[in-house]
Amino acid sequence: MTDMFTMGEGLAVFAGSGTGPLRNGGNFTLKVAGSELNVAIGVARLGLGAAWVGRIGADEFGRAILRTLRAEGVDTSAVPTDPSAPTALMIKERRTADVSRVVYYRAGSAGSRLAPADVPVELVRASRLTHLTGITPALSGTAGEAVMCAAITARAAERTVSFDINYRSALWSAPEASASLVPLVRLSDVVFVGADDLALLVDEEDPALGARAVAALGPRQVVVTMGSEGSVAWIDGETYRQPALPVTTVDPVGAGDAFAAGYLAAMLSGGAAERRLLQGATTAALVVGVDGDWEGSPSSAELALAGFSRGHVHR
Ligand code: KDG
């Protein structure tokens, strides 16, 4: 039995090392990322079992994704390689010290060709939790069918389904997203949604009331994340609030995935609602304090590093 199965697109990331418009030139660092892959690494670093599936190209970037995941202890045994499409790219630009931009080169990518036949049915059935996101259905019709197939398979096996809305306006319109994501929310037990994306699911802007309204669609746990304002959740019929931990943000990309990883790892370890939310806030703070979408993910022993004041030296 595996703790968590997750599925989505892995991307090679070219992260500009300086600040300013990319047209100025400069150096790039090659990394890998992808929302679901980030969560898999986050959960594995916290000592739980995680398996990831996504179509990768038969290229160096696909190999970099596998190499990274294997080094992080994530099970990649069911990852299909697509010989006729490239691994997707994401370019990260730090436009100013405070504002980052990302550009995708993922149309027609190997990851976008994910299809129901790629869903490792036995692995899903053997996983306590299946974690999916709203990015994958934005990639193609077959990728959306694969996500639906994984959710239905997990539910039929009485496993927990977790779903992060993760709306990406560069990939599809709000009405398209809404039509695809609401049925997936109805199949989920745990839903993560940014406050700005609530309107895709329900007609309620207030985060606390929005969490309740999303729960009325079916999930028992709904977490609305609000960046530096923290999060508010409706869990098993009660409202919970969790402030964000103080942190100097180095790179905000990946905060939501880190929160989901911390929350889900605590849930899988039997933690109560308050513990899940606190661990989510802690992992998010540790990830945004480091360059990269997942690189700052903590081990269990490192969770205590969050929340120290600037300049603290841990001895
Ligand atoms: O949440 C971080 C992700 O946004 C990033 O790792 C890449 O999956 C990604 C996406 O589609 O933006």
Question: Could you characterize the architecture of this molecule?
Answer:
With 315 residues, this protein is an alpha/beta fold. The protein is 30% helix and 23% strand. The strands form 3 sheets. The chain has an 8-stranded mixed sheet. Strands 3-2-7-8 form a 4-stranded mixed sheet. It has a two-stranded parallel ribbon with strand order 5-6. Helix 1 (35-45) crosses helix 7 and helix 7 runs antiparallel to helix 8 (273-288). The longest helix has 16 residues, at 141-156. It is globular, with a radius of gyration of 18 Å. It starts with a strand and ends in a 27-residue tail after the last helix. The relative contact order is 0.13. The model has no long low-confidence stretch (mean pLDDT 96). 2-keto-3-deoxygluconate is lined by residues 11, 33-35, 38, 90, 135, 168, 253-254, 256-257, 293. 2-keto-3-deoxygluconate (KDG) binds at residues 11, 33-35, 38, 90, 135, 168, 253-254, 256-257, 293.
SSE succession? EEEHEEHEEEHEHEHEHEEEHH
- The overall strand count is 14
The portion of residues forming beta strands comes to 15-25%
Unreliable spans:
none
Describe the largest sheet.
8 strands, mixed
Q: Structural class of the helices, strands and pairings?
A: alpha/beta
The tally of helices reads 8
C-alpha geometry: globular
Strand order of the largest sheet: 4-1-9-10-11-12-13-14
Q: Level of helix content?
A: 25-40%
In round numbers, the mean pLDDT is 96
Radius of gyration, in Å, reads: 18 Å
What is the rounded distance between the termini?
A: 38 Å
Q: Any ligands, ions or cofactors bound here, and which?
A: 2-keto-3-deoxygluconate
